[in-house]
Amino acid sequence: METAARTAPAAVIVAIDGPAGTGKSSTSKAVAAKLGLGYLDTGAQYRAITWWMVTNGIDVEDAVAVADVAGKPTIVSGTDPAAPTITVDGTDVSAPIRTQEVTSRVSAVSAVPEVRSVITELQRTIAAEAPRGIVVEGRDIGTTVLPDADVKIFLTASPEVRAARRSGELKGKEAADLAATQAALAKRDALDSGRETSPLAKADDAVEVDTSELTLDQVIECVVTLVEEKRTAA
Ligand code: DC
Prior knowledge:
Layout: H1 4-7, E1 12-17, H2 24-35, E2 38-41, H3 42-55, H4 63-69, E3 75-78, E4 85-88, E5 91-92, H5 100-110, H6 113-129, E6 133-138, H7 141-145, E7 151-156, H8 159-169, H9 172-176, H10 178-194, E8 207-210, H11 216-233
Parallel strand pairs: 1-6, 1-7, 2-6, 7-8
Antiparallel strand pairs: 3-4, 4-5
């Protein structure tokens, strides 16, 4: 008789990085659901700590003030890909972290090294505790948070495609202004790529997938195949 240890697949860690509007979240959730893995949106964690700073009147442009309180909020992420959750000190913040107010401040908060070390530690704990493995999406997962991930993907897309996709997620007046969306994305990219501590970057051993001309299903299929190949080879 085969033992459970021989039949259960080993936990697999999948890191998916890239800028906003490349399909990271939709891809990561779908891949996790298909493969029975957990799902962690690390951008939501940076948004959650930013929401807490704004709500508590911290000047987010003051890196010292932000660093001083970085360890105060308790952020909890639920990792079911069908219904991911995020709370700060027990409050559900899944809606307020998507407001323009938080989006425009998150790059400043996430550039503060003390914030990154608190959030990185949280991410590593969540990944280590995922029983069957996890898909973790972000900016620095393959380079800094989980450099030993089994599969590393770096998603890209042209600025025009990214702005159009992001615009489709926004509502009303915000959605109509494609040029403003493209400019806002470019500004956030520059801040996220240019910061000193673990910037947005492709790991040397990551597979780069340009999603500009691909449907979401094609991107999902591509990542699922890469994970399955890795599992077969292991
Ligand atoms: O994925 P997102 O757009 O929700 O991420 C919001 C911000 O969080 C992004 O502009 C930069 C920051 N972020 C980060 O610095 N590191 C990560 N691993 C994920 C997000």
